[in-house]
Design goal:
Layout lengths: L8 H5 L7 H4 L4 E5 L2 E4 L4 E4 L2 H4 L8 H12 L12 H15 L7 E3 L5 H16 L4 E4 L8 H5 L4 H5 L8 E4 L13 H8 L10 E4 L2 E2 L5 E2 L2 H13 L3 E5 L23 E4 L12 E4 L19 H14 L4 H23 L6 E5 L2 E5 L5 H12 L1 E2 L1 E3 L5 E4 L7 H17 L8 H8 L13
Parallel strand pairs: 3-15, 5-6, 5-7, 7-10, 10-11
Antiparallel strand pairs: 1-2, 2-3, 4-12, 8-9, 11-12, 13-14, 14-17, 16-17
Helix pairs in contact: 4-11, 5-11, 12-14, 13-14
Organism: Streptomyces griseomycini
Keywords: Aminotransferase, Pyridoxal phosphate, Transferase
Protein name: Diaminobutyrate--2-oxoglutarate transaminase
Length: 449
C-alpha cells in the first residue's frame, strides 16, 4: 500500500451505508491526544469537532485517563446495571457537592441508559406519567435523538423521515429568533393553550435546547427562556431542557441555561458528562416528580462504572474552582471576534456568526458552501462538521481544554478554508464539488445519540 493511502476496504464492503463521519473525513484514525487526532500514517488533525460534544476535555485527557487506569488495574467493577457501587456513590456525592448544591438545584439523579436519546426518552416518559397527558411541545430546528420518542420532538425532516412511522403526540413551535421584535415569543402558543377551539390538547411538557447544536448553533435569549419557563408554570406544563450537547461547560457555565436564571423541571445530560467519551447519560428532575416504580424504566448499561470514575475526575479537576468557566467565556469572546473578521473580510460575506462559549457556527447564504469549507478544512488538517436544517452552518466545537495556540491555529485554518472555497464564476458546481469533496453529506449529522 503506497505511503499516504488508507486501507478502507472493510469499512466500504462490510460496514452499513448508514455511516456518516467516515465519509466526511476519509482517513483511518489511529490515536488521539488533547486537541488532535492522528491517522494511521501519522498525520495530525486539529479537532474542532470534539466527538460532537462528547470530548469537552480533549482526547485521552491525562488526569481522567490516570483515574480510569487505576480503577481498572485494581479490578474495579465495570458493569453493575443499577446496583450500588463505590464508583457510583463517589460520583453522586461529587456531582451533588460540585454541581447541584452551589447552583441550588434540587434534582434527583436518574441513570437512564448509555446515550443522550435514552435520557430524552426517560424525560418524556416521566413528564407524561406525572401529568397524565401525552402531547409535548418542541421547537423548530431542534434535535433530541434518534429513537422514536426523541425523533417525535426533533425538527429535522430528514431524520424524522427515517422513523418509518408517524411521529405523534408532539407539537412544533418557532424557536427564538433574535431578529424578531415581537413583545412575546409565545403569543401563538398562549392562544392555542387558552383557546377552547384551538384543537390543542394541553401538553405535558415543553422540551427545548438553550443553544441548538445540530440545528445550526441557534442561541436562545435569556429573556425568551425565562418567558418560556413562566408560560410552562402558568399552563401546568413541565419544562425539559436538553443539555446533552451544550451542557458540561460547552457554553461557559456547567449548564447552558444558567445564564437565564431558570430552574427547569427536568434536565438531560450525556456526551461530556463522563468526561472521557465513555457512554453515560443522566436525567435530572425535581424530587416531587420522582414517581417511578422500581424497574419501571431500566436498561442493561445504565450503570457503566468506568464512566462514573472519569466523570468524577472531570468534576474534581475542572469544576471545583470555576476556572474553566471563566476561561471558556474568555476564549468564546476571542473566537467570536475572529469569526466576525472572517465573515466580514471573506469574499462570500458569511451572513451569520453566532454562538456562546466554545460553540460557534458560521452560516453561509449558499447552503452548499459550509460543506465545501469543511471539506477543504479537512484537507488542511482541521476537523469541522456542518449543522443546520440544510447543512448551511460550519460548526466550530473545539475542546474546552484547547490551548490558546491551538485555538488560534484552528481559526486561521478555518479562515483559509473559507477563502479557498470561494466559488469561481468560471467553475461549475459539479467541478467545485469534485474538487472539494463529493463525500460531504447533504444533511447535517445527527450528533449520534
Amino acid at each position: 500500500m503506497p505511503v499516504g493511502s488508507f486501507d478502507r476496504n472493510v469499512f466500504e464492503t462490510l460496514e452499513s451505508e448508514v455511516r456518516s463521519y467516515s465519509r466526511s473525513w476519509p482517513a483511518v484514525f489511529d490515536r488521539a491526544n488533547g486537541s488532535r487526532l492522528h491517522d494511521e500514517n501519522g498525520r495530525p488533525y486539529l479537532d474542532f469537532f470534539a466527538g460532537a460534544g462528547a470530548l469537552n476535555y480533549g482526547h485521552n485527557n491525562p488526569v481522567l485517563k490516570r483515574a480510569l487506569l487505576d480503577y481498572l488495574e485494581k479490578d474495579g467493577v465495570a458493569h453493575a446495571l443499577d446496583m450500588s457501587t463505590v464508583a457510583k456513590r463517589t460520583f453522586l456525592e461529587t456531582f451533588r457537592e460540585i454541581v447541584l448544591e452551589p447552583r441550588e438545584l434540587p434534582y434527583k439523579v436518574m441513570f437512564p441508559g448509555p446515550a443522550g436519546t435514552n435520557a430524552v426518552e426517560a424525560a418524556l416518559k416521566l413528564a407524561r406519567k406525572v401529568k397524565g397527558r401525552e402531547p409535548v411541545v418542541f421547537f423548530t430546528n431542534s434535535f433530541h435523538g434518534m429513537s422514536l420518542g426523541s425523533l417525535a420532538v426533533t425538527g429535522n425532516a430528514f431524520k424524522r423521515a427515517g422513523a418509518g412511522i408517524p411521529l405523534v403526540h408532539a407539537t412544533p413551535m418557532p424557536f427564538d429568533d433574535p431578529l424578531d421584535d415581537r413583545t412575546s415569543g409565545f403569543l401563538w402558543l398562549e392562544r392555542l393553550l387558552e383557546g377552547r377551539g384551538s384543537g390543542l390538547d394541553t401538553p405535558a411538557a415543553v422540551i427545548v435546547e438553550a443553544v441548538q447544536g445540530e440545528g445550526g448553533i441557534n442561541v436562545a435569549r435569556a429573556g425568551w427562556l425565562r418567558e418560556l419557563a413562566e408560560l410552562c408554570r402558568r399552563s401546568d406544563m413541565l419544562l425539559i431542557v436538553d443539555d446533552i450537547q451544550m451542557g458540561c461547560g460547552r457554553t461557559g457555565a456547567f449548564f447552558s441555561f444558567e445564564e437565564s436564571g431558570i430552574t427547569p423541571d427536568i434536565v438531560t445530560l450525556s456526551k461530556s458528562i463522563s468526561g472521557y467519551g465513555l457512554p453515560m447519560a443522566l436525567t435530572l428532575f425535581r424530587p416531587e416528580l420522582d414517581v417511578w416504580e422500581p424497574g419501571e424504566h431500566n436498561g442493561t448499561f445504565r450503570g457503566f462504572n468506568p464512566a462514573f470514575v472519569t466523570a468524577t475526575a472531570a468534576l474534581e479537576e475542572y469544576w471545583r474552582d470555576g476556572g474553566l468557566e471563566k476561561q471558556t467565556l474568555a476564549r468564546g469572546e476571542e473566537i467570536r471576534q475572529a469569526l466576525d473578521t472572517v465573515a466580514d473580510d471573506g469574499p462570500a460575506h458569511a451572513p451569520g456568526v453566532r454562538g456562546r462559549g466554545l460553540a460557534w457556527g458560521v452560516e453561509f447564504a449558499d447552503t452548499s458552501r459550509a460543506s465545501l469549507v469543511c471539506a477543504r478544512a479537512f484537507e488542511l488538517g482541521l476537523l469541522l462538521e456542518t449543522s443546520g436544517a440544510d447543512g448551511e452552518v460550519a460548526k466550530l466545537f473545539p475542546p474546552l481544554t484547547i490551548s490558546d495556540e491551538e485555538l488560534e491555529e484552528g481559526v486561521a485554518l478555518f479562515a483559509r478554508a473559507v477563502q479557498e472555497t470561494e466559488p469561481s464564476p468560471r467553475a461549475p458546481a459539479a467541478e467545485r464539488a469534485q474538487r472539494y469533496g463529493p463525500h460531504r453529506r447533504s444533511v447535517p449529522p445527527a450528533g449520534e445519540r
